[in-house]
Amino acid sequence: MGITKTEAFKAADLTLAAYAKALAHPARVAILRILLERSSCICGDIVDELPLSQSTVSQHLKELKEAGLIKGDIDGKKVCYCIDENAWKHAQLLMQKMFASYTSCGTSCC
Amino acid sequence: MGITKTEAFKAADLTLAAYAKALAHPARVAILRILLERSSCICGDIVDELPLSQSTVSQHLKELKEAGLIKGDIDGKKVCYCIDENAWKHAQLLMQKMFASYTSCGTSCC
DNA sequence: TTCTATCATCGTAATATTACAATAAGAAAG
DNA sequence: CTTTCTTATTGTAATATTACGATGATAGAA
């Protein structure tokens, strides 16, 4: 139905899935890489670096903001974007824990 | 348009986004946790642990398989699922690199 | 005020996702 | 062969996502 049975899953799984969803589009990965590349905030010109229209980029930025991964502070005519440190480290921790919990399959079936 | 401008993005971003997409639903995260919990493969009964119908679970398993994160080997009447070690470690590496490349914002704007 | 630059939002169209019941496909049991 | 058990696939409906042009909103320049 295109609708997810949100209430049926564990909070930790929902949180991780939400972060993953934010990363689930190459444009958003590209935006994050642009923000990661510089140590300071970036004002505007994200649009110039992507092959997408201004409105589409703005929409992706909104999704990243709603996921909490980035912040956008108004600075006069422009908007200053940067990674949200807390959410970023939270997402990193959840991902790390998930991926690190793997141990090689003991059986011979695979 | 619901369609992604695939050709316009870097391969690394596409790969990371594809892995992230596989993790972008709580049911798939839950499935992966079930597989991670045991050191051996698990035959069937994933459906019993989730609040979803058999066909829906099967569809999620298919997506995880297509993303490469899991394998399913036929074992008589049942199917043996387990994490695909190579893809898992590849995804882990890409995620780790991405998250680790963050350094605190130097400026005062955020 | 008026113009311009920058970013957000709205409206819309195309496509994708999520979910389930029903059905199919395959292997083992009887 | 027929039945049963297990998983995959098909069909369908509801909702979500992706993308862009057009329009709004706001701040600074002229």
UniProtKB/TrEMBL annotation, chains A, B:
<keyword id="KW-0238">DNA-binding</keyword>
<protein>
    <submittedName>
        <fullName>Metalloregulator ArsR/SmtB family transcription factor</fullName>
    </submittedName>
</protein>
<dbReference type="InterPro" id="IPR011991">
    <property type="entry name" value="ArsR-like_HTH"/>
</dbReference>
<dbReference type="InterPro" id="IPR036388">
    <property type="entry name" value="WH-like_DNA-bd_sf"/>
</dbReference>
<keyword id="KW-0805">Transcription regulation</keyword>
<dbReference type="InterPro" id="IPR051081">
    <property type="entry name" value="HTH_MetalResp_TranReg"/>
</dbReference>
<keyword id="KW-0804">Transcription</keyword>
<feature type="domain" description="HTH arsR-type">
    <location>
        <begin position="8"/>
        <end position="106"/>
    </location>
</feature>
<dbReference type="InterPro" id="IPR036390">
    <property type="entry name" value="WH_DNA-bd_sf"/>
</dbReference>
<dbReference type="InterPro" id="IPR001845">
    <property type="entry name" value="HTH_ArsR_DNA-bd_dom"/>
</dbReference>
<dbReference type="Pfam" id="PF01022">
    <property type="entry name" value="HTH_5"/>
</dbReference>
